[in-house]
Design brief:
single chain, 803 residues, mainly beta, Maltoporin, Chain A, 22-stranded antiparallel barrel, globular, disordered N terminus
Length: 803
């Protein structure tokens, strides 16, 4: 314990000094761009500890985005929200759990359906640990809070790396609403949204919000017709009209909020959120981003259309129509074309009863997800790896919390959490093994395999915290969460193509792999908070986190596999933070500094098995993330707002000697057998984690002033900088991304009361196109990588009318 404390102190002190020295030149923070005021910092309320506290008083590393922050650049997608927070990246995925969420360099891969995210989402009190939610639009929000580091006590069952908390707007005390429409020229995206709500009577209020968007796309498909190198009888048609530009999506979201306040003591709020997302290719956001010496290859075939650089040109052919028509689970009207469909429903019921000195709060949640899509997982013209992927999920959760507010030095929080989740991921494909396929006339299928899995999790958790006011301005809190999770998994192949290599190697239909796991954990934490003066907070915290293990739901199920062999262990985190928050210079400057050190054990990572082209989950032995963060906001008068933030982060594997080699890695490069006769592995100990830039930051300025008696002009500009990083753990050639800066700006014309507004908005004006995440290309050679890239320049006009 002494050695751990010494390492923690050494890791925190040096970056904190660096942060203090750099405070004057820092970069953006998530600062709040307040509405009309008479000068000075607007007080921001946060619920980081499930009670209303000011951002300056709460002893938690949290970045808060207010409604005005989100409106500044029309941030309605989670990817755009992630772009506004230092060290946070949210990237949609095309299979697996549906997306990657990365905070301070810590993440769980999106490429395997058996893994949950290390950074969870909390939407109106309901925890969601699946990346598919990154495709939904979030609008009419009151606030977004990003809580950094392990969150054991206050959000769902546990989150080892952080929580992105989104709070929607409620009915309010008077009737009000808005209508907004906009058009983005680069991707030809149209969007319209509106909301209206207020009190029906003195006990009941309602708010309804709807948003619809439609986008042509920003990635141009430059593939063309080609002779089929693997099945000459079925020529490759190239792209059709629908997927010449991707992701050509449509997104419809609606929310209804009802609030019932029958007395001063009891309140209940019911929120129902429905979302439907569609596009024209499940893999439409992915492209080949790097190639080896032979260009982009698939099983030795070189694609003549691929340029092998991250840009807004991708290559993907439709499947031959006859082959496509034999796939299962598709409507005949689809005619074998690629697609994505994601439907979700999120219901939350938040009830509180105040007994005076004790408050009881209940949050009941239900989340339903149905996703299905079809795409080209070879990311090329050959269509050797087409895949139909989907998942259905239902999740029920209940959290009960009792909080005391006695007029005494000691108070408490106790509670329990229950979650029951059932998921059914499935996949049908043709590739994966270099094998010839035949049409099975008895079905008829012209595919290699089709499997469907079941994953059930039941979580029981209890937590408690004691709050001790040692003296008036000094508080000590200590708490712990106990979690027990039971998981059942079932895997089976529904179909295997007869007469192919699949038939010889894969688990026959009628047989299955199944089993159960039980995992339990105690996650303690403690915080010492000192308020030396009003609006000044100094704190030190010891925190831990936990995420249970599971079973890898890879794309192929082999005869040789066992439940134990597919299982992976839990992920844990422990460490601490020290921080300072304060309002200075007569309330015109807000400063938020923190330094942190965390040790992660059993870090869950997903990697591509080159032979089977399936993504499997492994536990890295351990990793460390440490650094310093500085956020500053300066509001000198009614007209100017300056936002700045700087982060320094070191995230490295402390011990990962059994990491998978990248495709084509040589023994001279460290790819060696793990044991005689065992698989080749690569020692990544001491190496930097993927998506963990050493430096990142923002700098932003807003200016608002009248230009006539009835019209104001508002100008905003923000610069975001990210230093170099790896886009995948394996450090394969081509995966190192150089540092870059992105510039965003907006011009707004509005009346002094903000009842109307017309805006010109530009995001990523420098048109930076970097690889966000990548992996070895299925079927490719050394250096062939596929990944997701930045969206690129966006130019938008937007009009808003409030009433």
């Amino acid at each position: 314990m002494n050695r751990f404390a010494s390492a923690l102190a050494q890791a925190l002190c040096r970056p904190l000094v660096l942060g203090a020295l750099s405070i004057g030149i820092a970069a953006p923070a998530l600062a709040q761009d307040p509405p009309a005021r008479t000068g000075g910092i607007e007080s921001v309320t946060t619920t980081a500890r499930k009670q209303e506290e000011t951002l300056m008083d709460v002893p938690v590393a949290v970045s808060a985005l207010t409604e005005n922050d989100l409106d500044r650049y029309n941030a309605t997608r989670l990817t755009e929200i992630g772009d506004m927070v230092p060290q946070l990246q949210i990237t949609p995925g095309t299979s697996g759990n549906g997306g990657a969420v990365i905070l301070r360099g810590i993440a769980s891969s999106s490429t395997n359906a058996g893994i949950e995210t290390a950074v969870s989402f909390n939407v109106d009190g309901v925890q969601i640990s699946r990346g598919y939610i990154s495709r939904a639009a979030f609008f009419d929000l009151g606030q977004v809070e990003v809580l950094k580091g392990p969150q054991a006590l206050f959000f769902g069952k546990n989150s080892p790396a952080g929580v992105v908390s989104l709070r929607s707007k409620g009915p309010g005390s008077e009737w009000e609403g808005y209508v907004q429409a906009g058009y983005e020229f680069e991707a030809q995206e149209f969007m319209v949204e509106g909301a209206y709500g207020g009190p029906v009577n003195d006990k009941f209020g309602i708010r309804v919000a709807v948003r619809y968007s439609q986008m042509e796309g920003y990635l141009r498909n430059v593939s063309g017709p080609l002779a089929n190198p693997f099945e000459p009888a079925y020529p490759l048609p190239g792209p059709n009209q629908r997927n010449k530009v991707t992701p050509s999506d449509q997104n419809l979201v609606g929310r209804i909020t009802m609030q019932f306040d029958p007395s001063d003591r009891f309140t209940a709020t019911l929120r129902i959120l429905g979302s439907q997302y569609t596009d024209d290719e499940q893999t439409g956001i992915t492209q080949v981003v790097a190639c080896g010496a032979d260009g982009a290859t698939t099983r030795g075939f070189r694609d003549p259309y691929e340029d092998c650089v991250p840009d807004h040109f991708r290559v993907s052919s439709q499947m031959p129509e006859f082959i496509a028509s034999t796939y299962p689970l598709q409507k005949k009207s689809n005619k074998g074309q690629y697609f994505t469909k994601i439907k979700s429903t999120l219901i939350s019921l938040d009830m509180s009863y105040d007994f005076g000195s004790v408050n009881i709060n209940s949050i009941t949640g239900f989340y339903y997800l149905d996703t299905k899509g079809w795409g080209n997982y070879g990311y090329d013209t050959s269509t050797h790896f087409p895949g139909l992927n989907g998942e259905s999920q239902s999740q029920f959760s209940e959290e009960l919390r009792v909080t005391s507010t006695f007029d005494s030095p000691v108070n408490f929080v106790i509670g329990g959490y229950y979650e029951n989740t059932t998921r059914h991921p499935y996949n049908a494909g043709r590739g994966g093994l270099n094998t010839a396929l035949t049409l099975d006339p008895t079905v008829p299928f012209f595919i290699g395999y089709w499997h469907r899995d079941t994953n059930k999790r039941e979580t029981l958790s209890g937590f408690g915290q004691v709050l001790w006011d040692i003296v008036e301005d000094l508080q000590f809190t200590a708490g712990v969460r106990y979690t027990n999770e039971h998981m059942y998994a079932f895997r089976e192949n529904l179909y295997i193509n007869p007469g192919s290599l699949f038939q010889l190697l894969m688990l026959p239909p009628g047989q299955n792999i199944q089993g159960t796991t039980d995992t339990s954990n105690w996650s303690p934490e403690a915080t010492l908070t000192w308020h030396p003066a009003p609006d000044h907070t100094i704190y030190a915290a010891y925190k831990t986190g936990f995420k249970s293990g599971g079973i890898s739901h890879a794309g192929l199920i082999f005869k040789s596999e066992t439940f134990q062999g597919l299982s992976f262990g839990p992920e844990t985190a422990k460490g601490g933070e020290i921080g300072y928050k304060g309002v200075l210079l007569d309330g015109t400057i807000r400063v938020d500094l923190n330094a942190y050190y965390y040790l992660f054990k059993g870090l869950q990572r997903s990697s591509l098995d080159i032979v089977t082209t399936s993504f499997v989950i492994r536990n890295a032995a351990s990793a460390v993330t440490k650094g310093v963060e500085a956020e500053i906001m300066w509001v000198p008068d009614d007209h100017w707002t300056v936002r700045t933030a700087l982060t320094y982060n070191v995230a490295k594997f402390r011990d990962f000697s059994t990491a998978p080699c990248f495709n084509g890695q040589l023994p001279s490069e460290g790819c060696l057998p793990s044991k005689p006769g065992g698989p080749n592995v690569f020692d990544l100990s001491g190496e930097t984690l993927a998506n963990a830039p050493r430096f990142s930051g923002f700098f932003g300025v807003s200016y608002d002033t009248p230009i006539t008696d009835g019209v104001n002009i508002g100008l905003s500009g923000d610069v975001k900088y990210i230093s170099w990083y790896w886009s995948q753990d394996s450090q394969a050639p081509g995966s190192r991304q150089s540092g870059y800066a992105k510039i965003s700006a907006s011009i707004r014309f509005h009346d002094p009361d903000d009842s109307w507004e017309f805006a010109f908005i530009g995001r990523n004006l420098t048109n930076e196109i970097k690889v966000l995440t990548s992996g070895d290309k299925p079927g490719g050679n050394r250096g062939d990588l596929a990944g997701v890239v930045e969206r690129g320049r966006e130019l938008m006009v937007q009009g808003t009318f409030r009433f």
